[in-house]
Amino acid sequence: MAKGLRAIRTARGWSQDRLVHEMRRFAEQRLLDIAAAASLKTYISEWENGRRTITDRYAAILRPLLGATDAELRGETEVQEPQADGYADLLSRIDAAGSLSESMVPSFLAQTELLRTMDRQMGATGLVDQMNGHLAAMEEALTFAVLPGARRPIATALAGASTLAAWQALDAGAVDRAWRRYELAKKAAQDAESPLYLAHAMGEQAYVLADAGRPLLAVELVRDAQRTQPERQSSRLRAWLAAAEAELCAAAGPGMESAARSALDRATELLPDDGETRDADMLSIFLNTGHLTRWRGNVLAKLGDASAMEELYASLDSADESFVRANSGLYCDLTQAHLARGELDDARSHLQKARLLANRTGSVRFRRRVELLTGRL
């Protein structure tokens, strides 16, 4: 324990008082309830001296705050002993990685799908360690995969999982981790020679910029994603990117309304009418006519368009209850649409539902939006 947190803290040049301050600020930004400053100071001293175990609750704050893994915080990281024959170990790892594309990649993909389902229904709060371990296993496999034929399937799996991990981090308010996960996803997509996963990672990364207060840069990034080998992108991906551009343009404020509407029209034209929700080669994206209707309502509500109400209520009637976090956003959109019409009672009703769903999934991102809307009532 003494080797864990203390070593990480002192490496940053932080005093215990500074760590207390940073933990309090981190918690306040994410609406988390933690101990008072004096109690935290005692906890830190006891954690570092091995007299108290870091609970999962505080480890979840310390990990993204200090950029450390759970094992590092707890001083459990094992140091590799020098090996008499390092080449033998290296070749063993290379041989193992060479067979992964046939044996383990389907398992990687299945694990990603399970984590995606859990995230969609329950939120990402309790999945941090599972996702970190999942990504680490794929990164390890990719590190020792030598030939392109072995690397590509592993890299493709890593690109999809990293994008999911990045979106989870963004939803949890861990912006730096989200950005780094998107960078990992982009590098993996390039290694996989997959313009689909590369463009998708760029499109989602644009939301980090928008949330950070750089909406115009976000728009440029999602447009650049659409220019990333468009001839190799699927129609559903191109529709998704166009819808993302529409939302980001609408959020950018005055002067972007025409661009937002144009992008919405383009998304409608591009979306294939095949009755499917996902492409077989692009499982990271969920988009059908129902999802696009909800997205259109979101954009129109941001633009203050009265027709948003019809789109949003149509989406509410057909909403998939398993998309819990997305439904929190839908209720936020309805709140915004009713506020624009001065219908405060309806706005309050929808906002309460949005708050309940955001709290259920632990979505810091939607809880912030709920608080912003609360200030307008």
Description:
With 377 residues, the protein is mostly helical. The protein has 20 helices and no strands. Helix 2 packs across helix 3 (37-48). The chain is globular and about 65 Å long.
Query: What order do the helices and strands follow?
Result: HHHHHHHHHHHHHHHHHHHH
Biggest sheet: strands, sense, closure?
A: none
Number of helices: 20
Q: What separation lies between the terminal Cα atoms?
A: 48 Å
Low-confidence spans: 78-84
Tell me, what's the shape?
Answer: globular
Taken as a percent bin, the fraction of beta residues is: under 5%
The secondary structure category is: mainly alpha
Give the arrangement of secondary structure elements:
Layout: H1 5-11, H2 16-29, H3 37-48, H4 56-66, H5 70-73, H6 86-98, H7 100-103, H8 105-122, H9 128-143, H10 148-171, H11 175-191, H12 195-211, H13 215-226, H14 235-252, H15 257-270, H16 289-303, H17 308-317, H18 324-340, H19 344-361, H20 364-374
